Amino acid sequence: MPERLLEEITENLSDDDLGLLLLIRHFERKLLDLFGQGLVQGTTHTCLGQEYVPVALAPLLDERDFVFSNHRGHGHYLARFRDPYGLLAEITGREGAVCGGVGGSQHILSGRYLSTGIQGESLPVATGVALHLRDAEPGVLALAYVGDGTWGEGAVYEALNMAALWRLPLVVVTENNGIAQTTPTSAQLAGTIGDRARAFGCRFLHVDSRHPHEIRDALRPLFERTRQGAGPLVVEFATHRIGPHSKGDDTRSAEEIRHARDHDWYPRQGGSPRFARLDAEARAFVEVVAGEVLARPLSGREG
Amino acid sequence: MRVAESLNRALHEVLAEDPSVRVLGEDVLDPYGGAFKITKGLSSRFPGRVLATPISENGIVGVAGGLALAGGKAIVEIMFSDFVALAFDQIVNFASKSVSMYGRPLRLPLIVRCPSGGGRGYGPTHSQSLQKHFIGVPGLAVYEVSPFDDHRELFGEMLALGEPCLLFEDKILYTRRLFGDGVADDLFQYDLLPGSGGVTRVYVDDPGQADCVIIAPGGVAHRALAAMRTLLLEREISCLLLVPRRLYPFDVTPLSPLLERAGAVVVAEESTAGGTWGAEVAHQVHSRLWGRLRRPVSLVHSAAGVIPAAAHLERDVLVQDTAIVRAVQELLT
Ligand SMILES: Cc1ncc(C[n+]2csc(CCOP(=O)(O)OP(=O)(O)O)c2C)c(N)n1
Fold first, then answer.
1. For a tag site, which of A39, B31, B105, B303 has the least CB within 10 Å?
2. Chain A contact set for B103 (CB, 8 A)
3. Which helix (H) or strand (E) holds A122?
C-alpha cells in the first residue's frame, strides 16, 4: 500500500477520527512539555508521528478483543479508551490513575488492554490469550503492538511459532519506525519482517499508507480471516517516529529528523479551517485535562 | 504408591474437577507422558486440554500467563528444572509482576512444575536445584514436593492462591514411596504441624523433646531421615525434622516454639552454596530467636560447584546425609 499526499490524510477523515488523532498528538506534546517542567518523572515514550496506527485500527477491534501494548503505548491506550484523564493521572501518579500510579507510562491494565515494558514479552502472553479465545470465545482476537527493534527478541519467534502451529487468532502489529532507541533498523534487523513472518506461515501485510481509511479497507478482511481461524496475521507499518525515543534523547542527525517530519500526517501549514478548529479544540481540551489532573491529590494504592 | 504416581494422580484429579485447567509442556502427550511420566494418561483422558509444545520454555510460560490472564488456569511442565532459567523473564517480569503492578490485585493461577535435583547422573545442566534464584520475588510462590504431602491438596492450594507458583519436584523422589498413615519408618512418625499451613514434622515420639531441629524441603527429606536414624542409633541424639510445603514466602512463626525448645537448628537443602533458601530461613530464625539458640543456625547444602555426571564425583558435590549428621553433631558439641 503506497503513501498518499499528506493533505488528503487529514481532509478525508471524520471529525471523530481527526479529533482522536489530534487528542493523541496534543497529549504527547503536553507530556514532553510537562517533562521539561519537571512535572513528570521517570521516562515516557511518545508516539508522535505514529498516532494514525492505533486510530486506524480502533474500529477494526471489538470490545472483547485483547490489546497488548508496549513502552510506546499512549496512543494505543487513548485510541481504545479515549481516557486522557486516567492516563495522565497514571503517568503523574494522581488520583484517578488507571493503575493507581503503580504501573506508570509503560504498565497499564484496563479491561482487556495490557501494556508492559519488556520488549517481546507480551507476544507469548498474547499467544496464550489467543489460545484461550480460540476455544472459549471464537471470533475474538488478541492484538499485540511491537516495534521493529523488538524483532530481535527470541520470545517473538517462540510466540509466532506456537500461534501459527495452533492457528490462533493473533494479530502482531509492528510499528516499524526505522529506529530502536538509537539503533537504525538497518543495523539491527537482518532480512525482513515480512520474510520472518512468512517463514512461520503467518499471513503478512506491509503498510506504507498513513491514511486510516485505506488501512482499514486493507486490513478488515485480514482481521476477519484471523477471527475465523486462519491463524496469525503480521502487519508491518512503515512509520516514522518524529519525537525523541523517550524524553530528549534523539541521536539522529537534523536531516534524519527532517526526513521523519516530512512524513508527519499533521500538516505543517495549518491545514483546512476544519482542521484548525479541531486542532484548537484538542489542544484546549488537553490543557484542561492537564490542569485538572495535576491539581488532584497524589494517588493511593488499592489492595 | 510412588511419588510420581501420586503427582500424576493429583493432576488427573485437578483436570477432572476443573475444566478451566490446561497442562502444557514438552513431550507431555501419551504414550510418552512427559520425560518423567508425570503427565501420563492426561492427554488421552483430556484431549485438547493437554498441549505438547515446541522447545520454548520462555514462550510456554508466557502462554500459560496468557491463559491465566484470560480467565483460565495453567500448569506448565518444564522438562528439567534447569531449563526454567529460560523462562526467567516470563516468571519474574511478567507473571509475578502482573499480580500487583497494575495497582490492583490480578489473579494469575499458574503453576510451573520443575523436576529438579541431582543424584541421577544427568550432569551439570540437568541436575540443578535452582530454587534459590526464585526466592524473594514479590508475587511468586515457591513450593517443593514432599513425600509426606497430599499432592492433590498441594495443587489445589497453588491454584487457589491466584499467583504464579513454581513447584520444584526432586527427581529422586519420583521413584520413592509416598509416606502414609503418619509412619515414616520403624523409628519415625510424622504429622502436620498444627497452624503451620503445610509443614510436616517428623519425630521419634515427642516433637517437643528433640535435641536439634532440621528444616529441609521435600527433596532432602530422605537424607534428613537417614541422618536422624544415624544420630539416634549411634549418638542418642534425637532430631525433629520440619518439611515445609512452601519455601517462599516462608514464615518461621509457627515453627518458633519448637526451634526455641531445641535451641539448635540446621537447614538442609540441595542447592549449591551461596545465597541459599537456607540463608533466608536462618535470617528469620536469628531475628526471632537470637540469644536463645546455642549456636547460629547451621546451613547444609551442596558444594559451590557444578554437578558432575560421574556418580562418584556427583556424590562429592551433592548434599548427603553424612553432612547433615556432621552439622548436627557440631551444633551440639
Ligand atoms: C527486553 C528489553 N530490552 C531493552 C529494553 C530497553 N528499550 C526500551 S524501548 C527500546 C527500543 C525498542 O525499539 P522498537 O521495538 O523498535 O520500538 P520503538 O521504540 O521504536 O517504538 C529499548 C531497547 C526494554 N525495554 N526491554
1. B31
2. 97-103, 299, 301-302
3. helix A122-136
DSSP B17-82: H-TTEEEEETT-STTT-STTSTTTTHHHHSTTTEEE--S-HHHHHHHHHHHHHTT-EEEEE-SSGG
- Beta-carbon contacts of B46 under 8 Å, excluding residues fewer than 6 positions away, are B15, B16, B23
pLDDT digits (tens, 9 = 90+) for A89-143: 999 999 999 999 999 999 999 999 999 999 999 999 999 999 999 999 999 999 9
CA quadruple A134, A135, A138, A140: dihedral positive or negative? negative
Ligand 1 atom at minimal distance to the Cα of residue A147: 15
pTM for this structure? 0.96
Backbone angles phi, psi at B266, to 5 degrees: -120, 135
Mutate to test the pocket of ligand 1, among A51, A119, A183, A239 (most ligand atoms within 8 A of CB): A119
Beta carbons within 10 angstroms of residue A120's beta carbon = 24
Using DSSP's 3-state secondary structure scheme, residue B92 falls into helix
Question: How big is chain B by its Cα radius of gyration, in Å?
Answer: 19
Cα–Cα distance measured from residue B295 to residue B291, given in angstroms and rounded to the nearest whole number: 9
Query: What's the rounded Cα separation, in Å, for the pair A168 and A172?
Result: 12
Q: Which value does ipTM take for this structure?
A: 0.95
Measured distance CA(B313)–CA(B306) in Å, rounded: 10
Q: Which atom of ligand 1 is nearest to the CA of A71?
A: 9
Q: What is the β-pairing status of strands A113-115 and A109-110?
A: antiparallel
H or E element in which residue A147 lies: strand A142-147
Q: Is the CB of A181 under 6 A from ligand 1?
A: yes
